[in-house]
Amino acid sequence: MQANHWSEIAERIRQQLEERHQAREEALQACRKAVQLCARAIRSLHRREFDACRALLSEAHQQILHARARLMPYPMLYHAGFLQDAEKEYVEGEALYAIVLGNALPEPEELGVEITAYLNGMAEAASECRRYVLDLLRAGELTHAETLLRVMDEIYDELITFDYPDALTLGLRRTCDALRAVLERTRADLTVTMTQKQLEASLENAIGSLAKAGQE
């Protein structure tokens, strides 16, 4: 065996691994940035800072596009999982934004994400919606809260029909189980609040009737 031939092979492989390493590092950084941006977007949404939320989601999308472009030549890295995690967070933010504003839900092709990331992101968005519903209940906006709960129900009803192995759905069944518990708690909170409002209204009417009768 010629030593110089082996050295050439090793050097060529080293360069290839270095290229993969650089692609992985850049993509990881972009995915981390995207996840952080999505978290900030959701926080802005809960504060009703809708323009800020939209800008943050757009920036997150650009980070994901960059990560995808860097990983595309390397299938092993592309499917390592961290890109799909970032996509899931991005779907959650976009879906929650659409739900809260009453817009049509975004489609996976529109967002440019893998379908498994899309499904899990939709489930996460429905769960996160509970927090917004609670804020609406505290503000007395019961009609809006009912609307959001109905959307949460519709998302859950469709998601549970995807009865496929976890290897295909990446844990969607567990995510749906968690969403079901969130739905039950949210529905109970809404029911209690509506009952209290009805009792308060009945009590006010009774007091008003007594006061009117006393004046007569």
TrEMBL record:
* Molecular function per GO: sequence-specific DNA binding
User: Any signal peptide, and if so, which residues?
Assistant: none
Annotated coiled-coil positions are none
Supply the InterPro entries for this chain.
Translin_fam, Translin_sf
Q: Which PANTHER family match?
A: TRANSLIN AND TRANSLIN ASSOCIATED PROTEIN X
Q: What is the designated name of this protein?
A: Translin family protein
What organism, scientifically named, is this protein from? Answer: uncultured prokaryote
